[in-house]
Amino acid sequence: MPNIRPAKSEDIQKIAEIESLCFPESEAASLKSFTERFQVFPECFFVLEVNGEIAGHINGCRYHKAELPDELFENANLHNPNGMYQTVFGLAVAPSHQRKGYASILTKHLIEVCKQRNLTGMVLTCKEHLIPFYQNHGFTSQGQSDSSHGGALWYDMTIEF
Asked: Which Pfam families did the record assign (predicted)?
């Protein structure tokens, strides 16, 4: 049975490893980036464990608008602890644990955390083939994103509570 918990500093190495397995190098956050982000907004990092092993993660900062500008990926200090929107920088499940519903479990967990924190909503960018996944979790597509993160084509997704 999977277990979700807040990430700890000692989890960052494994989080970065999973990220590197799931995203192209141009899109994956580095260990350095994860470390910097975790120092600024540790309350926005969650891991999913299976039999005591980290199998996936979800993370992002809080922001004052329903948008996810590329600058947020680069500068952890743009995190606004009073921001009413939770961003999602990354959702990743190790390849050996994929197709088991763990990405959905992580997404639902973060949605519930945001509701408990009385946030207005969440915002993320995703690739076109993932739009239906997020729509199934209540997100609405806002169309093609202005993001050029990693040189990829992204779509803005939002959910309001």
From this structure: Acetyltransf_1
